[in-house]
Structure formats: structure tokens, C-alpha cells
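Target chain:
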Amino acid sequence: MSAKNSLARLSFLIFGFAFLYVPILSLVFYSFNKSRLVTVWGGFSTEWYGRLFENQQILEAAWLSLRVAAINATGATVLGTLAGLALARFGRFRGRTLLSGMTTAPLVMPEVITGLSLLLLFVTTEQAFGWPEGRGVSTITIAHITLTLSYVTIIVQSRLASLDVSLEEAAMDLGARPTRVFLLVTLPIISPALVSGWLLAFTISLDDLVIASFVSGPGSSTLPMVIFSKVRLGVSPDINALATIMVSLVTLGVVIAGFVMLRRDRARQRDLQMALDAPG
């Protein structure tokens, strides 16, 4: 009976991974297809990668998406860290419930509603104050910070909630001021959470289509918007090449991040063992 259960679990596991990754592998495979027909193999060729790098529309959209994602991730990490610190360390202050609700609302709000509300906000402020002058990079960045701020806040708040407060108290007992304690004690400890929040905000911004479609304007189409507009007319081989490059970059980033985290964990365990082995 246990052997049958193990076989069934293994089968479900293989099916699940195949369901997730076989389409991605087939996309990578057909990116080297010589034929213009995406699902008909016409021989091995790297022609579509060359044509991809000659497509100015895709290159400009990719550069715009990377700029917006980097600015958004940095802004969301700074604001999310401050919000998470306030929620985790300042106890029951007036307005805590409002702050908590405002920072977590985008998590459960449909992106269509978020995009529409931000569009109406930008239109209203433009009519009232003259800013922003149309929709573009600035409005997309603000909208993405509004969306990803919640994710960073929850990550930082969770890390701070599990942090041993005695470390900060010991630093204060030794004469360090709260700002110095945060910079020299708290910040290094929660740095993995900050990196995770930054990467998550970057990924969400780079992948967003719905909200960007509402708050973008002429000449500010992000990469997902360009890809979506092309896919509606039929998938072309250069889109497969673009997707393959993106998958390769993500895989490389995951491998590097895992390697760095593994080294840090080994260094932490080594330092802990040295401290335990120290005399007295």
C-alpha cells in the first residue's frame, strides 16, 4: 500500500512539473526554429535572435521596462521598509489600522480596479494641478510602487516580527542611539528580506500588463504591452527568442541568488560554531 502511495505521489509530482515546464522548454526549443511557422520545425537556426536585436520597438520597450522596474523596486523597498518598521516596532499607535489596511489593500484589490482608480487619480490631478502632463514613465512608476509596496511591507514586517529584540536592546544598553542600532544591527540582519522584497518588486513590475495599460501613454509601452500586442496577431519566432532570453536571465539570477544565500548560510554556521567552540 505504501509503495502504491509513493508511486502515485511520484506520478503526480512528475505530471505537475511537466505541466509547468514542458511548455517553457518547447518555447525555448522553437526559438531556434528556422521556419516562420512557430509550431512547424524547419531546421536549426539562430536567425530570430538576430532579428530580435534589430527590432527597435522591442529593445526600447525592454529598456523602458527595466528602468521602471529598477526605480519601482528601489522606491518600494525604501517605503515598504519604513512601513514594515512602523507596523512591527511602534506598537499600537493612532492610525496603525489605517496604515495596515492601506499597505495591504493592493494585495487583494483586482489589478483592473487598481489601474482604473490610478488612471482617474492622474487625470484628476492633471486637471487640478497640471501634473502629471499626460501619462508616461512617471505614472507607470508611481502605479507600480503603489502595487509592490504592499509585498515589501509584508516581507519586512514578517522578518522584523521574528527578529530577536534583545540584540537591539543590547546595542542600546551599550550606548548606541536608535538610528545607529537600526543601521548597524537591524539593517544587516534583515538585509535578506530587503533583497527578497527588491527582487519581488522588480519582477512584479517587469511582468505587469494590466495596470501599465491603464496608466501608460503614447511612447511609453512596456515590454509586456508590446508582447501582448504582438501575440494578439499571432506568435512570431522572435517572441520565442525574447521569451528564451528572459527565461535564461531569470534562471541565471535564481542560481546566483541561491549560491550567494548558500555561502552566507555556511558562513553564518561557521561563525556560530567558532563562537560555541571559543573558550569561556
Q: What stands out?
A: The domain at 54-236 is CATH 1.10.3720.10 (MetI-like fold).
